[in-house]
Amino acid sequence: MAAKEIMAKHSKTIPGRGLRVADQIQRDLAEIIAFELKDPRVGMITLTEVQVTPDYAHAKVYFTTLADDPLAIQNTLDGLSKAAGYIRAQLGLRLHIHTLPQLHFVHDRSTMRGIAMSKLIDEANASRAKDAED
């Protein structure tokens, strides 16, 4: 029974490792994309989050771009997807884990939604202030 208790106690600390691995992947990918990737379709991007599956087989990499143009976003996504093998190989040189995840790039729309929501709130507040004056 003592062995099971030790195993259960140990397994509770494992979930933090997944977060640390995801954070390290995000830092390494940001550096690789900024300084080593030469694809002209990939301009300045910000990696907002990396989600890794529990078995480290796959990683979703969320990014944002400066341009909100759908064509520019699609070109960036195409460039990142095309270079995923190269980026993964470079990541493998920096990150030493048993399973190196396949990279899946996803455009993060949360920033654009946040800006739109903020604009709606500002408009509602302006309308409310105008109604209060009347």
Please tell me about this protein's structure.
The chain is an alpha+beta fold. The chain is about 60% helix and about 15% strand. The protein has 5 helices and 3 strands. The protein has helices spanning about 1-10, 15-35, 70-80, 85-95, 110-134; strands at about 45-50, 60-65, 100-105. It has a 3-stranded mixed beta sheet. Helix 2 (about 15-35) packs across helix 4. The longest helix is centred in the C-terminal third of the chain and has 24 residues, at about 110-134.
Q: Briefly, what is this?
A:
This protein has 134 residues and is an alpha+beta fold. It has a 3-stranded mixed beta sheet with strand order 1-2-3.
Q: Which structural traits does this protein have?
A:
134 residues, alpha+beta, 5 helices, elongated
Secondary structure elements and pairings:
Blueprint: H1 2-11, H2 15-35, E1 45-52, E2 58-65, H3 70-82, H4 84-94, E3 102-107, H5 110-133
Parallel strand pairs: 2-3
Antiparallel strand pairs: 1-2
| pLDDT < 50 stretches | 1-13
Q: Report, as a whole number of angstroms, the end-to-end distance.
A: 75 Å
Rg from alpha-carbon coordinates? 21 Å
Query: What strand line-up does the widest sheet have?
Result: 1-2-3
* Total beta strand runs: 3
Q: Encode the helix/strand succession as letters.
A: HHEEHHEH
Coarse shape: elongated
Q: Structural class per helix/strand content?
A: alpha+beta
Helix content: 55-70%
Describe the biggest sheet? 3 strands, mixed
The overall average pLDDT, rounded, is: 85
Beta percentage is 15-25%
Compute the number of helices. 5
